[in-house]
Design brief:
This protein is an alpha+beta fold. It contains eleven helices and 23 strands. The chain folds into three domains: about 160 residues, Immunoglobulins (Immunoglobulin-like, Sandwich), CATH 2.60.40.10; about 30 residues, no CATH class; about 200 residues, von Willebrand factor, type A domain (Rossmann fold), CATH 3.40.50.
């Protein structure tokens, strides 16, 4: 594509006063204006032809690779090699990306040195999914600066936006490393529970009921039994990806915060010897994996979690949780990540959870709606502020009524703000294991 540059328009406009003066001076001199326009047009065509010689440039592009949703972005790099006889002095590039990605800056100008130009743009994740850098728009002016030459190159550089694994890894390291400087590890599952782990010398402060009197008589000193929480339990991560879960909280969709918390729980659960499976649903069940064990199975859960898409449909709890109950052949811990916005949906959800409770342990995970809470605490300055505060308080009250009803039914509840959801879920899971509810 070729079109006039700003300089061509200014040069053409500069000849207008001369043409007007010539026309006023003599009747035959008005042709001067047309001649001026013709000369400028010819120069534009010459400039465009010289600049078009650079269209055969070679493009080398690289993307940032997979990006974590809600995490830091990456950099895309472009290298343009102009091999023609006439090389531009400057070139402008603009990268076009999938809506799941944000590119900054939108347009970047860079110098051409030795026939080569290099450019870098920042790529930030917006929403999770299979995203890509699609096209690169390149334009440059001819030697006279009168005409733009523009070319479009397809990129198709896959840049998937996955769950924020880096955040999960950092949180997991914080949980399992008590002192990273000295490499001291802490066992989260030792000391509680009913499964025998080892014998150790009895120390002051230990529970006297832990003393093994037979072994103490045999060894000639007090020996205590060290127990640990039972292993090999089945943990189901049930993630709701319906309309309500796709709404943002603190700038991050609820479902993304739920996936990050679920992956951290999966890592901890696999590390402590349990079996983990993933179940995703909205209007119907979407993903159902078999149970995996061992830390090596974390990659499989991570890949399946990346497939969870955003849905605009309402969640069907009756269908989803009934299908989940059919798949479970042993007593399990079902961790439900969800959100409810209307009383009818909440009633159906409570009814479905009640059926699960007959055989399984249910941990219900919800995000605190800090925006609603801030509306109730805000100082009213106008009548509209009062209306918003009353509506927000009513929604929070309905929400608390549902959570209270679930607690009375025996459901374990983990409620936390977006930034602390992962830690709250892991703490609730470990508490369930310590209490031997499974």
């Amino acid at each position: 594509m070729i079109y006039p540059a700003r300089r061509a328009i200014l040069v053409t406009a500069a000849g207008a006063p001369v043409a007007v003066a010539a026309g006023l001076a003599g009747g035959g001199l008005w042709m001067t204006g047309l001649a001026w326009i013709g000369v400028v047009g010819l120069l534009i065509l010459i400039d465009a032809a010289l600049g078009a010689a650079s269209r055969g440039f070679e493009l080398a592009a690289s993307g940032p690779g997979p990006l974590g949703a809600g995490g830091a972005g990456g950099v895309a790099r472009f290298q343009l090699d102009f091999g023609g006889p006439v090389k531009p002095r400057r070139v402008e590039v603009s990268a076009q990306a999938d809506p799941r990605l944000a590119v900054s800056p939108r347009r970047l100008a860079t110098r051409v040195a030795g026939g080569r130009a290099e450019a870098e743009v920042a790529v930030s994740p917006v929403r999770r999914g299979a995203a890509a850098l699609e096209q690169l728009w390149v334009r440059w002016r001819g030697p006279l600066g009168l005409a733009w030459n523009q070319d479009v190159r397809r990129l198709d550089i896959a840049t998937p936006v996955t769950p924020d694994i880096q955040g999960v890894k950092a949180e997991a390291l914080r949980l399992f490393a008590r002192d990273a400087l000295h490499g001291m590890k802490v066992q989260l599952d030792a000391g509680d529970g009913s499964e025998f782990h080892a014998l150790r010398d009895f120390m002051p402060g230990m529970d006297h009921r832990a003393i093994d009197w037979k072994q103490s008589a045999r060894h000639g000193r007090l020996v205590a039994k060290e127990r640990r929480t039972e292993r090999n339990h089945t943990i189901v991560l049930a993630i709701d990806s319906g309309r309500a879960m796709c709404e943002p909280v603190a700038g991050v969709p609820r479902v993304d915060a739920a996936i990050n918390a679920a992956l951290l729980l999966a890592y901890v659960g696999l590390k402590t010897g349990d079996r983990l499976s993933l179940f995703a649903f909205d209007a119907r069940p979407r993903i159902s994996t078999g149970a995996v064990s061992g830390v090596g199975g974390f990659g499989q859960l991570q890949r399946q979690a990346a497939r969870i898409d955003y849905a605009a449909e309402e969640t069907n709890y009756t269908l989803a949780l009934s299908a989940l109950a059919v798949d479970l052949d042993r007593r399990s811990l079902v961790v439900v990540f969800t959100e409810f916005t209307d009383p009818t949906g909440a009633a159906l959800m409570v009814e479905s959870v009640g059926r699960l409770l007959k055989r399984h342990v249910v941990l219900f995970v919800v995000l605190r709606d800090e925006e609603l809470e801030s509306l109730t605490r805000a100082e009213p300055k106008a009548p509209a502020d009062v209306s918003r505060a009353v509506a927000a308080a009513a929604l929070l009250r309905e929400r608390e009524l549902v959570l209270t009803r679930l607690r009375r039914m025996g459901v374990q509840i983990a409620e936390a703000p977006s930034g602390g959801l992962a830690s709250a879920v892991v703490a609730a899971y470990l508490d369930i294991k310590r209490k031997e509810l499974l």
